[in-house]
Every structure is written in structure tokens, then in C-alpha cells.
Amino acid sequence: MKHILSRLVTALLLVILVSVPSLAKVRKAQITLKADTKVGDVIVKKGTYEVKFDEQSNELSIVKGRKVIAKSAVQLEPLSSKYPDSAHIVNIEDNQAVLTGVIFAGTSQTVVLKSTSATATIKN
Known about the structure:
Structural class: alpha+beta
Number of strands: 10
Number of domains: 1
Strand content: over 45%
Shape: elongated
């Protein structure tokens, strides 16, 4: 009986360990910055990057290959409807492009960087 119970507990722990990473939802999209752009306190050079939003930590990461270029705390703001394509939102502040938000395809929320203002222009 103890042997069966031990195997059952081991199997249950294995199932829990395997399922925990799947609970952390990460959204991904690809963006192209047409100019050097400020993300938080970091200047990201123009080019194509992958953006990742981790819902669990409420953090947005700008990634090139395997290297994280910039991270920023974010908050979610609702949209009136689902957005069909991914897009990024850029403001010009003091003659500098500043990433203010990202919209992921098929979602009805904007991921807004906390240190930025709400007015913006959508750039596909």
C-alpha cells in the first residue's frame, strides 16, 4: 500500500511540475522599429525584434535572437474590439521615438508601458 501511495504522490508531483510552466502565458509578436526607439530607459536600435509579454509578471521584453534587449513593466488597457494584427505604438517625445504600447493579434487589450503617456500613433 505504501509503495502504491508513494508512486501516486510522485506521479501527482510530476504532473504539477509539467503543468506549471503552461500556466504562465506569454504572448509573442514581431515588430519592426523604423528608428532608434526608447523602451523604458534603453535605446533600442532600429530593426526587427520579437516582443514578448508575460502575463504572470506583467512584463514586456524586446528580444533579438536569444538576447533580451530591453524590459519594461506594463499594464493592460482594454480596446473596443479585437485587433486583427499585431502592432506597436510609438510616441515622439523630445525628438525621440518612444515605445508606448503593443497590441497582439486577436486580443482586445493594449499592453501599455507604465512610464509612457496614453496618446500615441499606431505603427504596423
